[in-house]
């Protein structure tokens, strides 16, 4: 007998009364490959045996012919999916990072993290932080993964993510700034269509529609982070909230990308404005794509606007 549905949160997931979770999208995966057909090779490596979590590494095939001592920029990527769906092994992320690595001639490490509802926030943030520390354990050339030891330039480390991953990237850079003793040097972060929110609209142009606001709040409060004391005003979600201070952000530059038709567009712009006004000493660049929606560059990767953003993202890494 099929178990009864306890709750549904389309388009993300359905929860059954027996506790089973059914994800409604973002479950497809493709394997890593050492076949250099797209000029990029990839492999999966476990970074957290305790939680059975892996990273997927992407390396330009031509780097196998690099002269000794020649290093590549390192991109740490945190995928989106509302903290609930997708993974580094999803075709959408595998293919996107393949293109980024090919175009930027960088090494990329795409991070798997525990997801809600089975593992609510803050599990995803804890995992992203432990992955970053694991990656930096290679900075003296003696970590467990040859590709990182041999090819990563730890003076050119970039951290980026989209949607929930953009949110996590900001918090990881804040943590890197706080943990001075760890010497985690991040050059820049790419905060793409970040999932930042709050109980109240951030300005008069932010989403005013009550149903939309309640819908987003429900996903956060009932699935993603049921333990948040103050709901959507949890500082993890309400990044632009009055109490937030960006002065300690642990990087030199930030690329903030927003899309005009995205529900998070005003939050993203408010974030960039708040960074500009803060005591933080770095540089902020904003890229706005007017007529597009949330993560359009992943959904329509060969469109002109997606290719234009890819070029901008690559320039951010190699510039």
Automatic annotation (TrEMBL):
Pfam families: Abhydrolase_3. GO terms for molecular function: carboxylesterase activity. Keywords: Hydrolase, Serine esterase. It comes from the Eukaryota. It catalyses: a carboxylic ester + H2O = an alcohol + a carboxylate + H(+). It is an enzyme of class 3 (hydrolase). Transmembrane segments: none annotated. This is carboxylesterase. It comes from Arabidopsis lyrata subsp. lyrata.
């Amino acid at each position: 007998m099929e178990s009864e549905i306890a709750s549904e949160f389309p388009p993300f997931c359905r929860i059954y009364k027996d506790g089973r979770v059914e994800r409604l999208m973002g479950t497809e995966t493709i394997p890593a490959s050492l076949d250099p057909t797209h000029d990029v090779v990839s492999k999966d490596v476990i970074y957290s045996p305790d939680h059975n979590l892996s990273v997927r590494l992407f390396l330009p095939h031509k780097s196998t012919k690099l002269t000794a001592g020649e290093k590549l920029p390192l991109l740490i990527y945190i995928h989106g999916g509302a903290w609930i769906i997708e993974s580094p092994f999803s075709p959408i992320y595998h293919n996107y990072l393949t293109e980024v690595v090919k175009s930027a001639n960088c090494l990329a490490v795409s991070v798997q993290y525990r997801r809600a509802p089975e593992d609510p926030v803050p599990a995803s943030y804890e995992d992203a932080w432990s992955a970053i520390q694991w990656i930096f354990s290679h900075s003296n050339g003696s970590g467990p993964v040859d590709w990182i030891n041999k090819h990563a330039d730890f003076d050119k480390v970039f951290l980026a993510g989209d949607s929930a991953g953009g949110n996590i990237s900001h918090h990881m850079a804040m943590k890197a700034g706080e943990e001075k003793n760890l010497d985690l040097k991040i050059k820049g972060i790419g905060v793409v269509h970040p999932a930042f929110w709050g109980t109240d609209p951030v300005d008069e142009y932010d989403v005013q529609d009550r149903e939309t606001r309640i819908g987003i709040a429900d996903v956060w409060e009932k699935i993603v982070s049921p333990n948040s004391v103050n709901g959507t005003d949890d500082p993890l979600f309400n990044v632009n909230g009055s109490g937030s201070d960006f002065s300690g952000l642990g990087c030199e530059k930030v690329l903030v990308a927003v899309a005009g038709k995205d529900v998070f567009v005003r939050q993203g712009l408010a974030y960039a404005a708040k960074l500009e006004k803060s005591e933080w000493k770095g540089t902020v660049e904003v890229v706005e794509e007017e007529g597009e929606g949330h993560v359009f560059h992943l959904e329509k990767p060969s469109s002109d606007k997606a290719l234009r953003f890819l070029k901008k993202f690559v320039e951010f890494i190699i510039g």
